[in-house]
Design a protein that fits this description.
By secondary structure, this protein is α+β, with helices and mostly antiparallel strands. The strands form 2 sheets. Strands 1, 2, 3, 4 and 5 form a 5-stranded antiparallel β-sheet that branches. Strands 7-8-6-9 form a 4-stranded antiparallel β-sheet. The protein is globular and about 55 Å long.
Length: 316
C-alpha cells in the first residue's frame, strides 16, 4: 500500500465531554498507532475478525447512502467485492482506548470508496468542507458508537491538528513543535489502564449528570473556563498558565467525573494534584483505555509513576 493509505490514531488533548456543551476542543494525530486497508490471500484470526466487522459495516453504509440527508457517495459494491477478494483493516490502534480505532476505519473507507470526496489536497481544504466532512463522518461512525461527533475520523483523515470552537466552527491549526531535541523536562504522556472502555455508557452517564443543575453550572462555568484556557495557553506555547489551568481542570475531573476514571488511577490522580509533579485528565470518554498526563518535570513524574507504563507523546 502507498504511504498515503496509512491512517493514524488521534488524541483529544482537550475537550472531552466539554465539546458536547460548546467548550473548545483540540485534537491531534498520533502516529504511534496506525491502520490501513490491506489484501491477503492467507486466512488468520485477525483478518477473519476484521472482515466480519467490515461486512457488517458495509451493510450499515448501504443503508446510509440511501438516506436523503447523507451527502457522500460511497461505492459499497466495490467495498464488498474487495472484502470478498481478501481485504481487511490491518491496525495497531487499540480498540476502546480513546485513540480513534473506529475513526481510522471510517477515514480509510471514505478515502478509498467515496466517489465525490472532499480533501483531495488535504492541506488546502476549506472550513466549510471541514464542517461538511465532520457531518458525513459523524453519520458513518455512528455504526460504532450509536452517536458520533465525526471529529475522530476527521483527524484520522486529514492527519492534521483540529481546533474545535463549536459544532460548526472548526478548522486545522498549527501547534508548537514538540521539543524532542531538548533535555527531558516537560512532557505530555499516556498512561495505560490495561483495560478497554466503552464510549456510549460513559456518554450516557455524562448526559444523566447534565440533568442536575449543579453539574450543568460546573460544566458551563468552571470546566469550560479551565479547558479553554488550557487550549489557548498550549497553542501559544505558554506553560505557566497552561499548568495553572491544568491543575484546576484535573481536580475538577477527579471531583465530578469519577465513574469515567479507571479505579486503578484514582490514587495516582490525587497524588499528582497533591505533589504538583504531574496532572492527569481523561483521554476521550474514559472508563478504561488511556489517561493523559501533563508534567513540567518528566523525571519526577516517571519516578512517582514507576509502577505504570508511561508513553511520552509530546515534549515541552
Amino acid at each position: 500500500m502507498i504511504k498515503e493509505a496509512l491512517f493514524y490514531s488521534k488524541i483529544l488533548l482537550f475537550g472531552e465531554y466539554g465539546i458536547i456543551q460548546d467548550s473548545m476542543g483540540l485534537s491531534i494525530p498520533y502516529k504511534a498507532f496506525r491502520g490501513e486497508l490491506k489484501f491477503s490471500s492467507e486466512n488468520f484470526e485477525a483478518k477473519e475478525k476484521s472482515q466480519k466487522a467490515l461486512n457488517e459495516y458495509a451493510t450499515h453504509l448501504q443503508n446510509l447512502v440511501n438516506e436523503p440527508g447523507f451527502h457522500a457517495k460511497i461505492d459499497v459494491k466495490a467495498l464488498k467485492n474487495d472484502i470478498e477478494k481478501g481485504m481487511y483493516f490491518d491496525s495497531t490502534i487499540p480498540q476502546g482506548f480513546g485513540v480513534g480505532s473506529s475513526g481510522a476505519i471510517v477515514a480509510a473507507i471514505y478515502d478509498k470508496y467515496a466517489t465525490n470526496k472532499f480533501g483531495q489536497s488535504k492541506e488546502e481544504i476549506g472550513k466549510n468542507e471541514i464542517v461538511e466532512l465532520k457531518e458525513i463522518f459523524g453519520k458513518m461512525e455512528s455504526f460504532f458508537h450509536g452517536k458520533s461527533s465525526g471529529i475522530d475520523p476527521l483527524i484520522c483523515y486529514l492527519k492534521l491538528p483540529i481546533l474545535i470552537k463549536g459544532k460548526s466552527d472548526l478548522g486545522t491549526v498549527g501547534i508548537p513543535a514538540s521539543n524532542d531535541s531538548s533535555a527531558e523536562e516537560g512532557a505530555i504522556f499516556l498512561l495505560n489502564s490495561g483495560t478497554p472502555g466503552e464510549t456510549q455508557p460513559m456518554v450516557n452517564i455524562f448526559m444523566e449528570k447534565m440533568k442536575q443543575e449543579g453539574f450543568r453550572n460546573m460544566i458551563k462555568s468552571q470546566f469550560k473556563k479551565y479547558n479553554d484556557e488550557c487550549i489557548n495557553a498550549f497553542l501559544k506555547g505558554d506553560t505557566k498558565p497552561l499548568f495553572k489551568n491544568l491543575k484546576n481542570l484535573s481536580g475538577l475531573i477527579l471531583d465530578n467525573f469519577k465513574p469515567m476514571i479507571p479505579k486503578t488511577f484514582h490514587k495516582i490522580w490525587k497524588q499528582g494534584l497533591e505533589s504538583n509533579a504531574y496532572y492527569l485528565k481523561l483521554c476521550g470518554s474514559g472508563g478504561g483505555g488511556f489517561v493523559l498526563g501533563f508534567t513540567q518535570d518528566l523525571e519526577k513524574a516517571k519516578s512517582l509513576l514507576k509502577n505504570h507504563e508511561l508513553e511520552v507523546i509530546y515534549k515541552f
